[in-house]
Write a structure and sequence with these properties.
Blueprint lengths: L3 E6 L5 H13 L19 H8 L8 H18 L5 E5 L18 E8 L2 H11 L4 H8 L5 E2 L9 E2 L3 H9 L6 E5 H6 L1 H11 L6 H10 L2 H11 L26 H17 L12
Parallel strand pairs: 1-2, 1-3, 3-6
Antiparallel strand pairs: 4-5
């Protein structure tokens, strides 16, 4: 049964914001939901889920063995699901295990929503999130072997690849229907952009509900809720998960050299997405 919808993004690209909007839209309550409500869309790399479905402790296996089990892990989640649609957040690139099988099997995947953000802003936001220096974040963004998770994180290892390769891996695969939206359009044209995602997912389209869900997932409101109650996805050394959320924040943090380094490496994808024009000039 194809009942899993993957909510995909490179880290710090708006995935959490969309999931909070979605939780509010589905609940359709007047008051904003607590941040913990997004537990309804746990990350696909959750080690506890893996152990419950597969019956093996992933940290007693090597990384390749875990990857070989992951397709069946998701098939088990799919077959045991009680809902018609199971939303799963993932930061993984679309990759294959040592058996040649895609980590995310098409036979149980209904579709994927891919949220992409200007890599310059991603770089700055990721540096804040991981409490690392900007130059280290730049190198991470461009690293073809980049990965997160495993070990003390309590999550399975997730292969990210570089920012550009992450985007290409999902948008060039043919096994899972995919709908890509830009974070910048979510911010500038929320009604149109969030509504287009709901239409792609064949969910009920109700403008009043969309408006209410957008109000209840407003970024400043999320910042206030985090400061009052905390947020479980904030890393230990990160002062604030919902930090800026703005467009063009990189201008205050990246040097001209760092900007050129990222643009030069990501030029084809950035141009395809409209972050630079045909002459390589930044448009955002």
């Amino acid at each position: 049964m194809k009942n899993i919808v993957w909510l995909v993004s490179y880290p710090k690209s708006g995935n959490t914001w969309f999931r909070i909007f979605l939780a509010n839209y589905l609940k359709n309550s007047e008051a904003p939901l607590p941040l913990d409500e997004i537990r309804n869309t746990p990350i696909s790399s959750n080690a506890i889920d893996f152990e419950e479905e597969i019956g093996l402790n992933p940290f007693e296996l090597n990384i390749s063995e875990v990857d070989n089990y992951r397709p069946d892990f998701y098939r088990s989640l799919s077959s045991n699901a009680t809902a018609d649609i199971v939303f799963k957040k993932t930061h993984d690139a679309y990759t294959y295990n040592n058996n040649g099988d895609p980590i995310f099997p098409g036979d149980i995947s209904q579709c994927a929503v891919y949220i992409v953000r200007n890599p310059l802003d991603v770089c700055v936001s990721y540096a804040n999130h991981s409490s690392s220096k900007i130059e280290k974040s730049v190198a991470f963004l461009l690293n073809q072997d980049a990965k997160i998770g495993s070990g003390k994180s309590g999550q399975l290892r997730q292969r990210l690849l570089s920012w550009g390769s992450h985007y290409k891996s999902w948008n060039e695969q043919k096994a899972i229907p995919i709908f890509t939206v830009r974070y910048e359009d979510m911010l500038r044209k929320p009604m149109v952009t969030f509504g287009s995602i709901l239409k792609f997912l064949k969910m009920e389209y109700d403008e009043d509900r969309i408006t209410r869900a957008l109000i209840n997932s407003d970024f400043k409101l999320l910042q206030k809720m985090e400061s009052e109650k905390g947020f479980k996805e904030r890393l230990q050394n990160c002062e604030q998960f919902f930090w800026k959320g703005s467009i063009g924040n990189y201008e205050d943090h990246l040097s001209p050299y760092q900007i050129e380094r990222i643009v030069s490496n990501c030029r084809d994808v950035m141009q395809q997405l409209g972050y630079i024009d045909s002459k390589g000039i930044l448009t955002v």
